[in-house]
Amino acid sequence: MIPNPAQNLADLAARLASRILPELATPHSQADVALISELLITLSQEFESAIEKRMQDINDMKALFAGATDNWPGAGAVAAYREKVPKSLLLEDVNQLHAEGLGYLIKLHAWAEEADEDLHRDIWHFLHTYYERHQFALPTR
Amino acid sequence: MTNDVNTADRLQPLGELLAAYMSRHWQQPCTLQQILQIPGGASRETYLVHLVKAGDPVGVVMRRDPPSSLIDTERTLEYQTYQAVHRHGVVPVPEPIVLETQPGDLQRPFSVMSLVSDGQASPTAMDEPAMQGVLEKLGHNKWRLLGQLGKTPISTLGVDAFMPIPDHPAAHELAYWQGVIEQDLLHPNPIAATAYRWLEKNLPPPSPHLALVHGDYRTGNYLYNPQGEITAVLDWEMAHIGDPLEDLAWSLDPLWSNSPELAGRLLPRARALEIWQEASGITIDRTAFRWWQVFASFKALAIWISSAEDFVNGDTKEPILAMAGWPMMDRQSRILLERLSPHGTHTHIPPLI
Known about the structure:
Chain A is mainly α and about 140 residues long.
């Protein structure tokens, strides 16, 4: 067992970029390998924290949904969502609950834009946290 | 050089088939000298082909449909746009030579254009020391040409003969790209949904000017030389009749620059607007332009969403699709977040102009 797959993926990306890429003969192959190397770095970052980040999102959304008033037509559905947990910690199951929560969040945001200034502000704060949490650290090209 | 041999082996039959096709098209003997695949371009396979036609060397670029093909009208429309722009000369483009809409010997439809040998498209090559002295000139040329395109009547170009004329370009484009998102979205995207609501609520009035819109006018889609001249504008596959502010906003999207201060890695954004206004003769309506800037990021996000779907469900597994559908979608989402959020800090992403 290799206990740190994320580091291994990053190491493989580095090897592709430093050892394999310079020996390729055509610009097309070089461009492909450069992209694959960057994607492996992206994967390595995602691999380590995918479950953790999605569970943080789910918990943050549940907290936001607690602030949704009964005036919102979706209040019943998010009350039920707040009780849910993923079927397992496999990424597929976590993704399913994550997607369901985001679906409710989008509807709640549309409603709060018109009807609830405080909730609207809280959702924007969540969105900042959400996109910062999921940001990849890649060089700007 | 094993790789050279393998690459030649892989592409040689395709090049020979093209040479045979061009012999019939030109009605002159034509043989293959060399064929190379050009990187980038997820929507078409692009090949640089050196032929010998009746004893003289001729360079051409072949763009062939990928296995999961675009619809016929898009391919034909792109080719007709090249013909119209080349005929008029408002913007330099490669000369279109032939469009083959039948799969035939080359297995898939393709087009052939003349090779423009003077220039390169690489955005990162602009950062090299040799280019620093000509970036202002290159930027001037970039937005001057775009302004000229915006000024040229669609009837003068003749594109109204084969392109639909939308009653309300902004509404038309928004509906189209929202449709792409709805069709291809793999996982809910809250900022795309927020942006759509904003764009719907703030829709500008119908455009006072109609022009040929390139649809992807950005760094990377034109050839430039070390003298700071633009020698060809490429990739017209998203061209349509619309509001010229659409191309201007797209060209200024932060995704195309490595610096928040510079438009397209070239010059300050305000300077780009001045050059465009002067060349187009159009005074920019700042409210409408603000809408088009948000729309540019929304459209880009739609393309990256579509790329992700294509990578996951399509046949080609081109790495550029995964790159677009993952890290680029991540950056574009943050651009939209900064631009729409009441709490945007604009530390790394410039505000709307």
